[in-house]
Amino acid sequence: MRLGLFTCGYQRYPLEKAFADAKRFGYDYIELWGGYPHAYVEDLKLKTTAHIRELIDKYDMPVECFTPEHNGYPFNYMMGDEVQWERSMQYLEDAIDITAEIGAKKMLFSAGHGGYEASDADMMKRLMKSLRRLAAYAGEKGVTLVLEPLTIYESNVICSLRDLERALNVVQSPNLVGMTDLAVPFTTGEPAAEYVRRLGDRFQYLHIIDNDGSSDSHILPGYGCLPLGPVLKEIQAAGYDGQATIELVTGYLKEPSVYAGLAIKRVRELLEEK
User: Fold this and answer.
1) Within a 10 A sphere around the Cβ of 15, how many other Cβ atoms?
2) What are the residue numbers of the active site?
3) Residues 20, 22, 25, 29: is their CA dihedral positive or negative?
4) What pLDDT was estimated at residue 71?
5) Nearest-5° angle of CA 145, CA 34, CA 157?
6) Residue 147: which H helix or E strand, with range?
7) pLDDT tens digits, one per residue of 185-243
8) Within a 10 A sphere around the Cβ of 247, how many other Cβ atoms?
9) Using CA atoms, how far apart are residues 192 and 34, in angstroms rounded to an integer?
């Protein structure tokens, strides 16, 4: 697998530190977090992406996926009135523009919580309207959208393989594909490799993380309850050996360099185990 560094854990440092560490520890690529202070969409729209492109060249470290902050911080296309929905769509379309501008081929996004009062029919109508619009715009820009299921602790819209497969089947766009974060199948009781088997070539991304089995926690690989090595081997056996970002987030802000180094070392060891 090609291993990526997620820059979210470096938000208390300049973005360059994440690029330098990715190079130092031997990561293959960057998954760029689109939040303050590094790469917030509305900031990049007003300024330029030149600094990011300079870092890509300086460290010979490609940004292969852009992940804008949304789902309530600051936007959630699954809740609110039509004005709020339109603003959410425009925000994500701007994020697609930025993805193309920095040379990334993929933009990762998900479906936020639909609220406790919305019916399943209403949520599906809103979801499909959103996905069709974004997929069409991504097609114009040459960007592939990667739809990420969330855990049941984060959303009530796309939280399982069944949810994801249904959305991809209804929209039927070459610019919309799926993935999994390993916390999702672990907390919902699904085999992670089944995502690969069921989605086939529509499965195009992976988030590697450990988990406690009862929350949305993102734990350093090898330090949670997930049988991570065997799970990764099953995913490979099912036919996936592509991009896999090690998704360390806010739990490791204090020492991002230490944990980024530990994480890739541990994942490599797990992948090499017989």
Assistant:
1) 19
2) 148, 247
3) negative
4) 86
5) 50
6) strand 144-148
7) 999 999 999 999 999 999 999 999 999 999 999 999 999 999 999 999 999 999 999 99
8) 23
9) 26
